[in-house]
């Protein structure tokens, strides 16, 4: 493998955890195939050329004002730097450190040993040492003020660590809800076959597109460019196990072994449990209005919608794998429903103004048992019940994905990535940056749930 090929594969792999425009990823894929003459057929070249030309068509040569990363939690660099000046056992941390929870916890534990503070025991009244206890622990030369200063710092660092872990978990859930397990794919598995890497990278970029402020539904990830990349995969060399983690269609799943399908079912079941925990936590803070799913003051719509997307993504993969294994009897007994996202009141009003109303799935969602109760065995929800409720609300349970999922993908036309400001399309990226910095389109409705994902 040439150094240039290696570099391009590394860039494509890094894009799996980013929000790069599909046009820019298409350019990288075209460059990758150019390093191996004869590796690309004419239809695929034509599709990639069209997408790449869109990236370079503007004066700004593919410039976008939108960030190319999912929001990351603020690290503990500042707290680590302060701790290095107060504790002998803490070294001055490099600027790049402060994001790894394991490293932060190790520092807290080591520093805590210096003042005889047990990790997790941070009550300011119950867990501090008094003068006699400090003297007995060999801390007699440390004044009460200096001891308290160190105790408070470690207490704040433990709270900071908990926030970092929670925010990293939310970020992971967000990425899974968008593009499946793409961000978890190891480099070796991703890069073993160029065609596999190209398809996964492009489909992931399409899946990671930001939601638009619209009542017509979001863009479908599988477009004509993705279809061209998929059609040229070599059946003998393609990484079907890697592809199955982002594209669970029948053509892919049938090429997996039973062991590989079982492994993926286990992974997706764990994600269902994780998403269910977050959904239940939001629900317990204040039940949502299931009959409308319109966001109300106090609703944590951001966490709910991120977890709902992850739940629906995991559920789709889980059901597709069961269908591929011929295990429909499991679905007949346990069939947890989809989770609807919260929508902003202005989007709901827009629907009504165009003659629409609540999504047809809303009535089904409102009547079925809560999915996390079904998953944990606290409520029964067999396939027969789901189909009965769907029919009562005029929804086809199979076409609507309530009891079974589609195992074929239909490609949609390629569409250039829109420049968005809080979900609203803006023609020029420079204008978008100015509007964003000036606070335009930043009302509460837009911030909370301005662009519902299609189910």
Structural class: mainly alpha
Per DSSP, the total helix count is 21
Number of strands: 2
How large a portion of the residues is in β-strands, by DSSP E? Answer: under 5%
Unreliable stretches (pLDDT < 50, length at least 5) are 56-62, 441-455
Adjacency order of strands in the biggest sheet: 1-2
Percent helix? 40-55%
Distance between the termini: 41 Å
Shape: globular
* SSE order: HHHHHHHHHHHHHHHHHHHEEHH
Estimated radius of gyration? 25 Å
Largest sheet: 2 strands, antiparallel
Instruction: Provide mean pLDDT, rounded.
Output: 87
Quick synopsis:
The chain has 455 residues and is mainly alpha-helical. Helices cover 54% and strands 1% of the residues.
Report on this structure.
This protein has helices at 3-14, 22-34, 42-56, 77-86, 101-114, 131-136, 144-179, 187-191, 194-207, 224-231, 240-244, 250-253, 258-285, 301-324, 328-333, 345-353, 361-367, 371-375, 383-392, 429-438, 444-449, and strands at residues 419-421, 424-426. It has 455 residues and is mainly α. The two termini are 41 Å apart.
Summary tags:
455 residues; mainly alpha; two-stranded antiparallel ribbon; 21 helices; disordered C terminus
Write the layout of secondary structure elements.
Blueprint (H helix, E strand, L loop, with lengths): L2 H12 L7 H13 L7 H15 L20 H10 L14 H14 L16 H6 L7 H36 L7 H5 L2 H14 L16 H8 L8 H5 L5 H4 L4 H28 L15 H24 L3 H6 L11 H9 L7 H7 L3 H5 L7 H10 L26 E3 L2 E3 L2 H10 L5 H6 L6
Antiparallel strand pairs: 1-2
